Amino acid sequence: MKGKHIVLGISGGIAAYKSVSLLRLFVKAGAEVQVVITPNGKQFITPVTLSSLSGKPVISEFFTANTGEWHSHVDLGLWADVMVVAPATASTIAKMANGVADNMLVTTYLSAKAPVFVAPAMDLDMMAHPSTTRNLDLLRSYGNHIIEPESGELASGLVGKGRMEEPEKIFECIRDFFHTRESLKGKKVLITAGPTYERIDPVRFIGNFSTGKMGFAIASEAAERGAEVTLVSGPVSVEAPRHPAINVVKVESALEMLAACEKAAPEADIAIMAAAVADYRPAQPHERKIKRETDGIDSIDLVKNPDIAATLGAAKRPGQKLVGFALETDNADAHAADKLRRKNLDCIVVNSLADKGAGFGTDTNKIKIIYADGRQSDSFGLKSKADVARDILDAIENL
Ligand code: CTP
After folding, report:
1. Phi/psi class of residue 347: alpha, beta or left (left: φ > 0; alpha: ψ in -120 to 50)?
2. CA dihedral in degrees (100, 101, 107, 113; nearest 10)?
3. For 347, which DSSP code?
4. pLDDT, position 69
């Protein structure tokens, strides 16, 4: 962490006292830290403490009152190698998610080119409120990292989820982040994500419940490790991650996804097939909308779609790594091992719909990994999809 530039954003919650320890850990590890505090944050911790420890004046206002000196959030956003918002209150999270730029912390966040880590801290009811959940989802969709709060005793005396993660843990998160940052530098990674839609007629399709979240999380993580990412995404409502190293190719059907993959695969060092590709498509999509009374159909003829993973597996170059997913409802290991062999994969990420919190649409997942040489990881436990993405890329790097 030596010489790294860290912007530490502190908002107004009781957990602000823990930010002092976090700041000390960063400084001791050799990082340069610029503290940006919200007006409410100053009610909880004094700028004097923070500037003494960081060796830099704390920034809170847009101007220094007596000199009129303008604090440039743009410069600060560019200076940062990473921005850490800890504690992030419900209000600051809402402002960050919705671009309410009424303080230096949020304006700096909006100008930051660097990865941003957010450590929420609030009471359990605020944490569980749908607006907080939605705002955190939005922040995730922008590619930010959420450092999940712990469950435990809260300042209110209530017990539940909302206690800011301990400074040591936040510090480790950032240290690990810098550690893995360059690990995929110079590598090209192809990722498929989301469902495919197979047209029946201009208004109807065959599809599935995939939201693309897992593939998007892998794309963000790969880009942050320095890879150049081609993200081939089926139709989804979640926004694809925005990162200069991610090239998003939007497709609709399995045939379009195959074409995009065949274009990118020859160059790719790693291909990760996280899409839920429809296995069949209507043999003859209708050109006009099928009318209930006049066209009255009883069935739709289907033809098999190409297997994209197997196609890439058959053309795999020496040294190229191909990774598949298996989302199963039963007999997960056996089905996954069979897919690994059939598609010539190097490893397969297995998740089961039988596990609560795993699979489609959730923000969490529970996986294990089966390798071509027969090795198997233990189950990784229920984690955020961002953390699962890290586990998957760590496993691929170890290949
Ligand atoms: N896959 C693919 N192209 C397809 C079908 C699947 O690339 N036409 C990839 C998926 O992205 C995933 C892996 O293959 O990485 C397994 O997908 P899955 O749908 O579970 O496999 P299938 O072979 O279609 O088996 P199933 O009979 O369970 O649907």
Report:
1. beta
2. 40
3. E
4. 67
Q: Give me the residue label for tokens 């003859």.
A: 284
Count of CB atoms situated within 10 Å of the CB of 2: 8
For residue 266, is the peptide bond before it cis, meaning its omega torsion is within 30 degrees of 0? no
Q: Cβ(230)–Cβ(188) under 8 Å?
A: yes
Alpha helices of the chain — where are they, by DSSP H?
Answer: 16-28, 47-54, 73-79, 90-98, 104-111, 124-128, 130-141, 167-180, 213-224, 254-264, 292-295, 308-314, 332-342, 385-398
Residues of the chain with pLDDT under 50: none
pLDDT score, position 242: 83
> Exposure of 268 by Cβ count < 10 A (0-12 exposed, 13-18 middle, 19+ buried)?
buried
How far apart are the CA of 254 and the centre of ligand 1, in A?
A: 11
- Structure letter (DSSP) for residue 31: -
Cα 277 to ligand 1 centroid, rounded to whole Å = 6
CA-angle at 396, arms to 183 and 240, nearest 5°: 75
For residue 278, the ligand 1 atom closest to its alpha carbon is 8
> Is residue 89 packed enough to be buried (19+ CB in 10 Å), middle (13-18) or exposed (0-12)?
buried
